[in-house]
């Protein structure tokens, strides 16, 4: 159920250059949240800036805690990074369509850069549902691999890739994943990250006839499907193109349904 509420800041930590981990007390949203959904955050004490900021839910605990991992990219998120424990932040959520989660299967999660944000929550829920999780995580260098200790504590099978070779496999995370697809016999795949990485993920999933979902990253204004500002191009079963709001039809979509040529 959609909630519009004042969430209390429990903690805010800087994890890297312009990257922050924010823990909020928002029990109504935390209890309802599903992996892949997002919240719309008012990044101001007033209405300037006017538009909220959409942030993927990084984690949600059973004690009413909601965790957001985000990168400062403008004055809205810069304001968010200055908030201290005890202060209140207005958030709206949970919003959007999340991931489809099976039980007792072998899953591959492929994260590129900050695309790991929604996949950590997915990994936690997937493990709780009795699934085996291979988590493929890539970034430019080892300093931009965030939340590694959290992932290790969750007991996922963790595979790392960096562009410069400073941690794990040297090269794109999709290249690393490609090496394991035949031998691991996955039941489903999931990905989030830069669009070229998602396109490569979708291509590989199709080649191996693997059911797969992707979380798309688009600029969202209203977050409710009214403004049509975050439209993605999709294709139906006949190959015809059509358009869908990412904020309401997604942000999670069937990887095979996305029109990657745009």
Fold and architecture overview:
This protein has 262 residues and is α/β, with parallel strands linked by helices. It has 2 domains: 3-95, Elongation Factor Tu (Ef-tu), domain 3 (Beta Barrel), CATH 2.40.30.10; 106-216, Rossmann fold (3-Layer(aba) Sandwich), CATH 3.40.50. It contains 7 helices and 16 strands. The strands form 3 sheets. A 7-stranded antiparallel beta sheet has the order 4-3-7-1-2-6-5. A 7-stranded mixed beta sheet has the order 11-10-9-8-12-13-16, with helices on both faces. A two-stranded antiparallel ribbon has the order 14-15. The chain is globular, with a radius of gyration of 18 Å. One of its GO terms (molecular function) is oxidoreductase activity. Its cofactor is [2Fe-2S] cluster; FAD. Responsible for channeling the electrons from the oxidation of dihydroorotate from the FMN redox center in the PyrD type B subunit to the ultimate electron acceptor NAD(+).
List keywords for this structure.
globular, 262 residues, seven-stranded antiparallel beta sheet, Elongation Factor Tu (Ef-tu), domain 3, seven-stranded mixed beta sheet
In spatial order, strands of the major sheet run: 4-3-7-1-2-6-5
Average pLDDT works out at 94
How would you name the CATH homologous superfamily of the largest domain? Nucleotide-binding domain of ferredoxin-NADP reductase (FNR) module
CA(first)-CA(last) distance: 34 Å
For the biggest sheet, the summary is: 7 strands, antiparallel
What order do the SSEs take from the amino end to the carboxyl end, as H and E? EEHEEEEHEEHEHEEHEHEEEHE
β-strand number: 16
Approximate shape? globular
Q: Based on the structure given, which CATH architecture of the largest domain is correct? A: 3-Layer(aba) Sandwich
């Amino acid at each position: 159920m959609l909630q519009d509420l004042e969430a209390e800041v429990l903690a805010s930590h800087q994890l890297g250059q312009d990257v922050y981990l924010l823990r909020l007390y928002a029990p109504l949203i935390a209890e309802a949240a599903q992996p892949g959904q997002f919240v719309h955050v008012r990044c101001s004490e007033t209405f300037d800036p006017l538009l909220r900021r959409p942030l993927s839910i990084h984690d949600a605990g059973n004690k009413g805690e909601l965790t957001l991992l985000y990168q400062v990219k403008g004055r809205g998120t810069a304001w968010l990074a200055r908030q201290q424990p005890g202060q209140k932040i207005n958030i709206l959520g949970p919003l959007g369509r999340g991931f489809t989660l099976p039980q007792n299967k072998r899953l591959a999660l492929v994260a590129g850069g900050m695309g790991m944000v929604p996949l950590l929550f997915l990994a936690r829920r997937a493990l709780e549902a009795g699934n085996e999780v291979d988590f493929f995580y890539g970034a430019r260098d080892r300093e931009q691999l965030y939340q590694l200790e959290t992932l290790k504590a969750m007991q996922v099978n963790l595979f790392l890739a960096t562009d410069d070779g400073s941690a794990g496999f040297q090269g794109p995370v999709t290249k690393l994943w490609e090496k394991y697809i035949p031998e691991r016999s996955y039941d489903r795949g999931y990905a989030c990250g830069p669009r070229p990485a998602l396109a490569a993920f979708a291509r590989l999933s199709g080649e191996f006839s693997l059911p797969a979902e992707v979380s798309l990253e688009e600029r969202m204004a209203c977050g409710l499907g009214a403004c049509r500002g975050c439209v993605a191009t999709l294709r139906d079963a006949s190959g015809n193109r059509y358009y869908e709001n990412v904020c309401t039809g997604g942000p999670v979509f069937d990887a095979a349904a996305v029109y990657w040529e745009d």
